[in-house]
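Researcher: We plan to redesign the surface later, but first we want a full-length starting point. Tokens attached.
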């Protein structure tokens, strides 16, 4: 009988709504299981022995390491669990990402329904919330969750294994919001829900530092829709008001944890930060406003999505100031609507700006101007408001059937387009060769993408293509030391030793500190090239630069001994390779 009591119409409807969102999202991303490891996945997983087991030393490393310029122990722990079950099979890691994203979509549904119900009646308490008794609320939240689940702007966060931190942090971020809302509206056990919100917040931080903005977001929730402050002009809700001193004291533990993680992150990313000499403050500010508009435009029209957006602003170009003007005008308009008691619009805008602030580019980390993964959390309110708006259009009183049919048809067409676009975008993350070819195709002026594609082409044995991409990257001043080594090796493999010699000469004269094994390897290879050109004296000088206790020391001794026996030395053996220098490097 108890089982039959559970099978009420409302519970069945609830189960259908939850499962439909989960499985549609899951099916949308199922093809990622055919993808491999891409980009940073090599260093996160394949070359990271610290996730190969769950021993005490490895767990200690996860919580104390700043590896890959990040502190995210929970992300490492999740990858270690994947390794335990799947080893180096990428399908298992992709499966975990897809499951987490599908669960996040279900959580978006629950959060959306609760916020809409509270917006309808700010004084309602949790026991009387009953979010699934209202068909309009169900439809609103279902649309919001479905759009969130299948939107192609999220492909980077889901299809890229290294962005596990995104989907994992979002999971605990939404749980933080839910626990806090229950705490604010619960009639009993409020301490438990407060403790849960703090715990979930800490877990979100340990998955990705971008969650540092959560304390401010909780204050936004206090303002609206929870209306725990006097900033909203609903005098009837004065019983909901809480003193600002209490609201701030509630958030104090959250702010302290945020401060600690911000400090850790700044230390971790010091090496990855770009100097002001490269991108000045003016460029960064313009790029910040440009990114604000870019993410909104990609949400509305997800076309030409790129894994690596380059800087496109110019302080001397008026067009670069248009996003700044647009943001300023949008803020003025939303403030005006605030005074018209349409509070939610400004709250959504502030949520968006605040969550983007850690990755907006004022403190530049990496060379990209923006990235789709950065929009995963900030665009969350857009899905909720879109779901509510579509539901409102469908449920307009005395709405004619033809109008409703048109709206539903349009929505289904949009869903189909987004689903197809997401499937298309997933294929870009198939493997490194496909990935970097796409990035270079979309932005051939991106020097770092050109050099990365050069490495991939080298690994595939396509030395001519590798040389071409390294040459373009060099013209953009985008080659790293390791790229130069690959470039020189590609030239050697392509029987162009003189050009390789020029590349190696640049490397040994660089002010950057070079590992002695690599440097000795380069000197040895340059010496061999000089021998090939019968420049014995120059070859001897370079061979003498090969340091003792390096893999090439014994080889150079043998060659010097051989040279001393003949006045007219002839190089008959194949030119030695510098391959050892980087293929055995564990980074």
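Model: Full-length starting sequence:
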């Amino acid at each position: 009988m108890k089982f039959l009591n559970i099978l009420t119409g409302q519970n069945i409807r609830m189960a259908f709504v939850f499962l439909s969102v989960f499985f549609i999202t899951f099916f949308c991303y199922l093809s990622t299981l055919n993808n491999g490891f891409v980009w940073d996945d090599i260093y996160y997983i394949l070359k990271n022995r610290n996730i190969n087991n769950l021993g005490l030393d490895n767990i200690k490393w996860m919580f104390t390491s700043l590896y890959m310029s990040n502190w995210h122990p929970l992300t490492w722990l999740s990858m270690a669990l994947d390794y335990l079950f799947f080893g180096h099979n990428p399908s298992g890691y992709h499966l975990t990402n897809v499951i987490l994203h599908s669960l996040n979509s279900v959580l978006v549904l629950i959060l959306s329904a609760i916020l809409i119900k509270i917006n309808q009646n700010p004084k309602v308490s949790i026991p009387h919330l009953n979010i699934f008794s209202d068909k309009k609320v169900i439809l609103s939240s279902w649309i919001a969750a479905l759009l969130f689940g299948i939107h192609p702007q999220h492909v980077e966060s889901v299809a890229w294994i290294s962005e596990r931190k995104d989907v994992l942090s979002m999971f605990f971020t939404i749980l933080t919001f839910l626990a806090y809302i229950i705490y604010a509206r619960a009639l009993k056990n409020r301490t438990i829900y407060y403790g849960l919100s703090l715990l979930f917040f800490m877990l979100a931080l340990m998955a990705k530092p971008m969650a540092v903005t959560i304390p401010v977001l909780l204050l936004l929730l206090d303002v609206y829709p929870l209306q725990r402050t006097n900033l909203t002009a609903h005098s009837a809700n004065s019983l909901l008001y809480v003193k600002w001193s209490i609201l701030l004291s509630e958030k104090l533990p959250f702010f302290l944890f945020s401060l600690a993680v911000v400090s850790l992150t700044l230390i971790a990313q010091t090496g990855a930060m770009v100097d002001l000499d490269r991108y000045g403050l003016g460029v960064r500010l313009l790029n910040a406003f440009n990114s604000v508009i870019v993410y909104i435009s990609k949400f509305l029209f997800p076309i030409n999505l790129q894994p690596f957006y380059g800087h496109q602003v110019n302080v001397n170009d008026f067009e670069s100031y248009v996003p700044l003007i647009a943001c300023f005008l949008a803020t003025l308009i939303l403030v005006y609507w605030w005074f018209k008691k349409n509070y939610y619009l400004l709250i959504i805008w502030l949520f968006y700006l605040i969550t983007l602030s850690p990755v907006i580019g004022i403190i530049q980390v990496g060379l990209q101007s923006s990235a789709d993964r950065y929009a995963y959390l900030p665009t969350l309110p857009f899905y909720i408001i879109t779901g509510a708006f579509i539901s409102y259009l469908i449920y307009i009183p005395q709405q004619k059937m033809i109008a409703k049919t048109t709206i539903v048809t349009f929505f289904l067409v949009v869903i189909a387009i987004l689903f197809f676009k997401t499937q298309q975008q997933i294929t870009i993350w198939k493997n490194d060769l496909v990935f970097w070819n796409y990035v270079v195709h979309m932005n051939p002026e991106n020097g770092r993408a050109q050099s990365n594609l050069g490495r991939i082409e080298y690994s595939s044995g396509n030395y001519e293509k590798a040389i071409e991409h390294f040459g373009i990257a060099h013209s953009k001043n985008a080659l790293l030391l390791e790229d130069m080594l690959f470039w020189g090796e590609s030239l050697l493999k392509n029987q162009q030793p003189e050009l390789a010699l020029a590349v190696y000469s640049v490397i040994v004269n660089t002010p950057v500190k070079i590992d002695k094994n690599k440097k000795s390897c380069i000197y040895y290879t340059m010496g061999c090239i000089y021998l090939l050109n019968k420049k014995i004296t120059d070859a001897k000088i370079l061979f003498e630069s090969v340091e003792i206790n390096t893999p090439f020391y014994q080889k150079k001794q043998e060659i010097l001994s051989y040279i001393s026996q003949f006045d007219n030395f002839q190089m008959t053996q194949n030119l030695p390779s510098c391959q050892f220098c980087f293929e055995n490097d564990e980074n």
